[in-house]
């Protein structure tokens, strides 16, 4: 799940992005409204975590601009403003959720997970395909009651494709979705993750879920 | 609580009842007196007519009015009027047949006089009498051929005559007059009451409209303004204007308070949020020593900022509560400014220089600690909000026996309208939020401390984007 974290506090950025990456999120960081708009213009995000009091362009303006540009990604407002009118204004402008600072980090992760499920149209946090269960809350993959040991990137790859069953994603699309904007990732790295994922599933006797469409990319059928 | 309308109505109507009652009583007394006088005059005239028909001649007293057919109203069957005459107030001379066996009362009138009185007539009706004391007219025979010519006439004695008649017609007239006056007064009062009720209501309608509008205003709609129906009234206009000004000030105060609360909440929630997230995420990476150490550094920074903000808020609170006192002493200004600058530049870690234009040896007499806090805040702001490598200038001049201190620096992205808000609590120019360490309380504290020290703080921005803070009112040394 790829998200854009728009927050002017560098310290909060540091801790949040560390924690979110630890939970398997792909995080891009923007420190002001201009930067946020620049990121959204060139990247596709599943969720944008948006502070309201931002330098240069405030959060509500950023929100209304990305909505007016037709960007339908989920937006979670993360703000110290706790007044009902602030929440109403944010939600009316097109935000999908509103979380008041200070917040519990786990709650933020859960809300992001819920937004992601809403986006994929699968409300059950556990996706089951041919006996392979992908638990998006525990961030665990189980086959035949045996846990499959996956790295965070492998898990992300599997959950991303499992949530979008039947859709083919190219190397570039997968890089875009699964890695930070600042990361330098090659096609080989993606292929290496796919190969490793297949091996780990094979080790527990799970079917080969991730298929290759030559010349197009990968998918989970 | 009473109603002005009711009170006005009650007061005006009560006053009208009182005035009209007095007028009615006065009118009745005057008219009744006049009618009674006319009645008494008629009694008197009748009595005088009877006196003129009383004469004394050689044959004695003659009462021509008592002759049959002369005055029928005294006949027995005509029981309307009565008379009775006495000689020397003692000897009954004659009385009307209508009296029968009864007598008329006596009042004891002096000779030549007359008086009136009410009485109950023998037939039981209310009546009125006149008693006249007179000397009979002496009839001397001057016709020599008359048999009585030259006869001796007995001496005339004073005669008392009482003439009485019923007063029903008088009473009926007085009753008619009284009831007419009363009726007119009641009708006038009723009509006036209705008219007063409507006129007072109409006159007070602008006030009622104003009261109705005011009663709908509470803290949720302080943006509402009072207006008026139709033409503005001279009495209501100043109230309406003053209330509208009051509402504006109230709205502004509420908004300021709300903004302050929101800002205070924001300024406290953001570092709390940072601390909470740092703690939670640090628990997730216990083995990443480098990361955990970096988080601890962040926690230290946040704690320092929060401590500074709480200290500033406490200082402001003490200043507002009037708990801050000044402890003036002599300060060598140039040297002290340099000390404060060095401290500020260390805190901010900036590489900017201070240009000092302070007369050598200038000593001022003021509170060292508070002046230090003021200068420190001004220097830190100047360093933070000026372009890289900018020079900060401090100037001191003596004007009108006072020392005027000015700190100026080139500003970044400051607008003239920002000057209006710079002393507001938590106000910050957005572009330098984040890790700047500024809570937006510096200039608020400067203003508060200056207030305690009885100094004026003036902020200006010139066309060249130079921001200037002028502090005036500092006293030169007492030596």
Report the sheet-strand fraction of chain A.
15-25%
Number of helices of chain B: 8
CATH superfamily caption of the largest domain in chain A: Response regulator
Shape of chain A: globular
Uncertain spans of chain B: none
What percent of the residues of chain B sit in helical stretches (DSSP H or I)?
40-55%
| The CATH top-level class label of the largest domain in chain A | Alpha Beta
Just name the CATH architecture of the largest domain in chain A. Answer: 3-Layer(aba) Sandwich
The separation of the N and C termini of chain A measures: 19 Å
Describe this structure in words.
- The complex is a heterodimer of chains A (221) and B (479).
- Chain A has 221 residues and is of the alpha/beta class.
- Chain A has helices at 10-22, 33-42, 59-68, 84-92, 105-120, 152-163, 171-178, 187-203; strands spanning 2-6, 26-30, 47-50, 74-79, 97-100, 126-129, 132-135, 140-143, 146-148, 210-213, 217-220.
- In chain A, strand 3 (47-50), helix 3 (59-68) and strand 4 (74-79) form a beta-alpha-beta unit.
- In chain A, helix 2 packs parallel to helix 3 (59-68) and helix 6 packs across helix 8 (187-203).
- Chain A starts with a strand and ends with a strand.
- In chain A, 43% of the residues are buried.
- With 479 residues, chain B is α+β, with helices and mostly antiparallel strands.
- Chain B has eight helices and 15 strands.
- Chain B has helices at 4-52, 168-215, 236-284, 289-320, 333-348, 368-384, 416-421, 442-452; strands at residues 54-57, 60-63, 81-87, 91-95, 114-120, 126-134, 137-138, 159-166, 328-332, 353-357, 363-367, 391-399, 402-410, 456-461, 466-476.
- In chain B, strands 9, 10, 11, 12, 13, 14 and 15 form a seven-stranded mixed beta sheet that branches. Chain B has a five-stranded antiparallel beta sheet with strand order 4-3-8-6-5, covered by helices on one side. Chain B has a three-stranded mixed beta sheet with strand order 2-1-7.
- In chain B, strand 14 (456-461) and strand 15 (466-476) form a beta hairpin.
- In chain B, helix 4 (289-320) packs parallel to helix 8.
- The interface between A and B is medium-sized, with 28 and 29 residues.
């Amino acid at each position: 799940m790829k998200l854009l974290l728009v927050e002017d506090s560098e310290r909060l950025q540091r801790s949040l992005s560390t924690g979110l990456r630890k939970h398997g999120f792909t995080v891009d960081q923007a420190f002001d409204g201009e930067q946020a708009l620049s990121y959204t213009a060139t990247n596709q995000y599943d969720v944008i975590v948006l502070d309201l009091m931002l330098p240069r362009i405030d959060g509500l303006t950023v929100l209304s601009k990305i909505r007016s540009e037709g960007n339908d990604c989920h937006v979670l407002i993360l703000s110290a403003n706790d007044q009902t009118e602030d929440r109403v204004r944010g939600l009316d402008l097109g935000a999908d959720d509103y979380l008041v600072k200070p917040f519990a980090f786990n709650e933020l992760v859960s809300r992001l997970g819920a937004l992601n499920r809403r986006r994929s149209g699968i409300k059950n946090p556990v996706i089951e395909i041919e006996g392979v269960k992908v638990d998006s809350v525990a961030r665990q993959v189980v086959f035949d009651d045996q846990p499959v040991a996956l790295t965070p990137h492998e898990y992300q790859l599997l959950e991303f494709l499992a949530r979008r069953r039947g859709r083919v994603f190219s190397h570039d699309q997968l890089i875009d979705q699964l890695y930070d904007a600042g990361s330098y990732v090659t096609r080989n790295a993606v292929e290496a993750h796919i190969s490793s994922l297949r091996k780990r599933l094979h080790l527990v006797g799970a079917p080969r879920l991730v298929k290759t469409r030559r010349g197009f990319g990968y998918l989970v059928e | 609580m009473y109603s002005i309308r009711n009170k006005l109505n009650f007061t005006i109507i009560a006053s009208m009842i009182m005035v009209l009652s007095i007028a009615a009583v006065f009118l009745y007394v005057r008219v009744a007196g006049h009618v009674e006088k006319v009645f008494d005059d008629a009694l008197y005239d009748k009595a005088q007519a009877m006196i003129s028909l009383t004469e004394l001649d050689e044959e004695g007293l003659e009462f021509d009015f008592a002759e049959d057919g002369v005055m029928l109203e005294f006949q027995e069957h005509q029981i309307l009027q009565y008379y009775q005459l006495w000689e020397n107030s003692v000897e009954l001379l004659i009385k009307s047949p209508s009296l029968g066996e009864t007598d008329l009362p006596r009042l004891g009138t002096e000779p030549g006089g007359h008086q009136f009185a009410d009485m109950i007539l023998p037939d039981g009706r209310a009546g009125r009498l006149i008693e006249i004391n007179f000397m009979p007219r002496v009839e001397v025979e001057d016709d020599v051929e008359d048999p009585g010519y030259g006869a001796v006439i007995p001496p005339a004695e004073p005669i008392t005559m009482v003439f009485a008649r019923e007063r029903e017609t008088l009473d009926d007239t007085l009753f008619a007059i009284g009831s007419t006056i009363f009726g007119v007064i009641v009708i006038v009062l009723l009509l006036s009451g209705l008219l007063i009720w409507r006129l007072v209501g109409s006159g007070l309608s602008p006030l009622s409209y104003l009261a109705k509008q005011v009663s709908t205003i509470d803290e949720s709609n302080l943006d509402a303004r009072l207006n008026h129906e139709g033409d503005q009234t001279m009495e209501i206009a100043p109230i309406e204007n003053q209330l509208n000004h009051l509402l504006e000030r109230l709205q502004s105060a509420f908004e300021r308070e709300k903004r302050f609360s929101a800002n205070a909440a924001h300024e406290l929630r953001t570092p709390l949020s940072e601390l909470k997230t740092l703690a939670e995420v640090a628990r997730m990476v216990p083995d990443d020593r480098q990361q955990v150490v970096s988080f601890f550094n962040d926690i230290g920074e946040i704690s320092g900022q929060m401590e500074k903000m709480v200290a500033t808020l406490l200082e402001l609170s003490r200043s507002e509560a009037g708990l801050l006192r000044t402890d003036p002493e002599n300060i060598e200004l140039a040297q002290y400014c340099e000390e404060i600058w060095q401290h500020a530049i260390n805190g901010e870690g900036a590489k900017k220089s201070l240009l000092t234009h302070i007369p050598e040896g200038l000593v001022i007499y003021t509170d060292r600690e508070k002046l230090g806090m003021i200068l420190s805040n001004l220097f830190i702001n100047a360093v933070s909000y000026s372009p890289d490598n900018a020079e900060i200038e401090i100037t001191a001049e003596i004007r009108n026996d006072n020392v005027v201190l000015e700190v100026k620096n080139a500003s970044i992205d400051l607008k003239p309208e920002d000057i209006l808000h710079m002393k507001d609590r938590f106000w910050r120019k957005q572009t330098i939020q984040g890790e700047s360490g500024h809570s937006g309380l510096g200039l608020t504290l400067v203003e508060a401390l200056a207030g305690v020290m009885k100094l004026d703080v003036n902020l200006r921005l010139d066309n060249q984007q130079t921001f200037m803070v002028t502090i005036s009112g500092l006293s030169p040394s007492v030596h």
